[in-house]
């Protein structure tokens, strides 16, 4: 275990707390204790744990579990997403159901099985970490949609109306369109309109999954399922339970991967690698591709039966060049976001810059616009972004996107970040969304000293 996860034990018996502490510290967990729920509340005001083991009964004359239920109700009011595993020697169905309704994860009866408890803790910590990653991704995509992606073109307004209607059903949705046209943002919109926006939206780049790890990534695996399976892993289907699973770049899957995905979509069931326990999937499937799937099917590169499972409803997103009303609002959004990122507030577009944006055909769509605006923000010194800052060439062919070399762009970003943070490498790394060690490696690569 690379990171020491923190666990809070809440139990009125000192011998139970000591036994649990001994077990958990053997597995490299950081442990804190409280002998009752009220003491635990005080402890949590100083430092929040990553997981809680909660005894349900504290008074000598009760086996109702009401004290544990009271703590779960308090925790729910705090809006903390901390996984809680109740533990009790006096359990009943009504108590288990009530605890689960209040957000408890599983249930352990005393006396416990050490291996079972550790496996459950590992599983809940991983699930919690994946949920946090997913929530971060969702917030980023939601921010892009809500704060600036205000589609003003008639074609996008019509598309959004149709998506909002279909989103309220369980129909699988296929989004098609060229790279960078906004498919990821529309997947978030569909999830938001689905009536279950608080559930998970899990995004998977299907073309990035190694063939040998496809089942582990999508369906999960149990500890010991194969040589490197040192811990239980939660698959993407399970993580998206009761929510939405966004399968991006589906045309990049191999035929073998397509067959495995098809089996789940047909049956609604799957098994984690190394397990014989069948799980059911109720996630809504949103998929996306920039590929002509009809052609891929005719060429034997994509399964027709999988295509039918994915495209209950298909929506084609037009390129940016066909919805010119969106160009200037998108540019203004990217000026705002990149300006905030590089501490260049109040940047404006000149009339010449607006004309240049509208005359350009945007072969790289929204993604290219983001890059072009970011480059202009970095190079501009006057506060007014002009056509010369954008350096766009009208009628440029789609095979000649106007970009600077990657190394040059990366060096410029690093220099700018170091300058803005007064050569504080840690702060610059945070600004660039890199680890400090990764930034040092890049500085060494480009011979960039702090000066």
TrEMBL record:
<dbReference type="InterPro" id="IPR009057">
    <property type="entry name" value="Homeodomain-like_sf"/>
</dbReference>
<dbReference type="InterPro" id="IPR002078">
    <property type="entry name" value="Sigma_54_int"/>
</dbReference>
<dbReference type="Pfam" id="PF25601">
    <property type="entry name" value="AAA_lid_14"/>
</dbReference>
<protein>
    <submittedName>
        <fullName>Sigma-54-dependent Fis family transcriptional regulator</fullName>
    </submittedName>
</protein>
<dbReference type="InterPro" id="IPR003593">
    <property type="entry name" value="AAA+_ATPase"/>
</dbReference>
<feature type="coiled-coil region">
    <location>
        <begin position="120"/>
        <end position="147"/>
    </location>
</feature>
<keyword id="KW-0547">Nucleotide-binding</keyword>
<dbReference type="Pfam" id="PF02954">
    <property type="entry name" value="HTH_8"/>
</dbReference>
<dbReference type="InterPro" id="IPR002197">
    <property type="entry name" value="HTH_Fis"/>
</dbReference>
<keyword id="KW-0175">Coiled coil</keyword>
<dbReference type="Pfam" id="PF00158">
    <property type="entry name" value="Sigma54_activat"/>
</dbReference>
<feature type="modified residue" description="4-aspartylphosphate">
    <location>
        <position position="55"/>
    </location>
</feature>
<keyword id="KW-0804">Transcription</keyword>
<dbReference type="InterPro" id="IPR058031">
    <property type="entry name" value="AAA_lid_NorR"/>
</dbReference>
<keyword id="KW-0805">Transcription regulation</keyword>
<dbReference type="GO" id="GO:0006355">
    <property type="term" value="P:regulation of DNA-templated transcription"/>
</dbReference>
<feature type="domain" description="Sigma-54 factor interaction">
    <location>
        <begin position="149"/>
        <end position="378"/>
    </location>
</feature>
<dbReference type="Pfam" id="PF00072">
    <property type="entry name" value="Response_reg"/>
</dbReference>
<dbReference type="GO" id="GO:0000160">
    <property type="term" value="P:phosphorelay signal transduction system"/>
</dbReference>
<dbReference type="InterPro" id="IPR027417">
    <property type="entry name" value="P-loop_NTPase"/>
</dbReference>
<dbReference type="InterPro" id="IPR001789">
    <property type="entry name" value="Sig_transdc_resp-reg_receiver"/>
</dbReference>
<dbReference type="GO" id="GO:0043565">
    <property type="term" value="F:sequence-specific DNA binding"/>
</dbReference>
<dbReference type="InterPro" id="IPR025943">
    <property type="entry name" value="Sigma_54_int_dom_ATP-bd_2"/>
</dbReference>
<keyword id="KW-0067">ATP-binding</keyword>
<feature type="domain" description="Response regulatory">
    <location>
        <begin position="6"/>
        <end position="125"/>
    </location>
</feature>
<keyword id="KW-0597">Phosphoprotein</keyword>
<dbReference type="GO" id="GO:0005524">
    <property type="term" value="F:ATP binding"/>
</dbReference>
<dbReference type="InterPro" id="IPR011006">
    <property type="entry name" value="CheY-like_superfamily"/>
</dbReference>
């Amino acid at each position: 275990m690379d990171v020491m996860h923190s666990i809070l034990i809440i139990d009125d018996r000192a011998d139970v707390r000591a036994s649990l502490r001994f077990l958990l510290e053997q597995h490299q967990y950081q442990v804190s204790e409280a002998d009752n729920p009220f003491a635990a509340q005080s402890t949590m005001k100083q430092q929040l744990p990553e997981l809680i083991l909660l005894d349900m009964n504290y008074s000598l004359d009760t086996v109702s579990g009401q004290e544990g239920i009271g703590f779960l109700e308090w925790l729910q009011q705090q809006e903390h997403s901390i996984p809680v595993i109740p533990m009790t020697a006096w359990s009943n169905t009504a108590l288990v159901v009530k605890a689960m309704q209040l957000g408890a994860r599983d249930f352990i009866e005393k006396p416990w099985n050490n291996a079972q408890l550790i496996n459950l803790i590992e599983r809940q910590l991983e699930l919690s970490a994946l949920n946090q990653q997913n929530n971060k991704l969702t917030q980023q995509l939601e921010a892009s949609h809500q704060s600036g992606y205000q589609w003003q073109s008639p074609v996008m307004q019509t598309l959004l109306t149709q998506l909002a209607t279909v989103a309220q059903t369980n129909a699988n949705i296929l989004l098609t369109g060229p790279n960078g046209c906004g498919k990821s943002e529309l997947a978030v919109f569909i999830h938001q309109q689905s009536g279950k926006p608080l559930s998970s939206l899990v995004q998977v780049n299907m073309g990035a999954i190694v063939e040998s790890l496809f089942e582990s990534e999508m369906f999960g695996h149990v500890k010991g399922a194969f040589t490197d399976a040192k811990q239980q892993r939660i698959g993407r289907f399970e993580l998206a339970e009761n929510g939405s699973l966004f399968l991006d770049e589906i045309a990049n899957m191999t035929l073998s991967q397509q067959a495995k995905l098809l089996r789940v979509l047909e049956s609604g069931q799957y098994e984690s690698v190394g397990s014989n326990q069948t799980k059911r999937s109720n996630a809504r499937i949103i998929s996306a591709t920039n590929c002509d799937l009809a052609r891929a099917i005719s060429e034997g590169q994509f399964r027709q039966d999988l295509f039918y499972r994915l495209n209950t409803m298909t929506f084609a997103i037009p390129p940016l060049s066909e919805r010119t009303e969106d160009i200037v609002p998108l540019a203004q959004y990217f000026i705002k976001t990149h300006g905030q990122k590089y501490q260049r507030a109040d940047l404006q577009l000149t009339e010449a810059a607006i004309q240049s944006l509208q005359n350009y055909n945007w072969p790289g769509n929204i993604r290219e616009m983001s890059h072009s605006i970011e480059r202009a923000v970095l190079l501009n010194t006057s506060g007014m972004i002009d056509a010369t800052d954008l350096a766009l060439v009208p009628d440029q062919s789609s095979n000649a996107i106007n970009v600077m070399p990657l190394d040059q762009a990366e060096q410029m970003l690093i220099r700018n970040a170091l300058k803005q943070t007064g050569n504080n490498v840690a702060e610059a790394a945070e600004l660039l969304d890199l680890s400090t060690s990764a930034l040092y490696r890049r500085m060494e690569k480009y011979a960039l000293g702090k000066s």
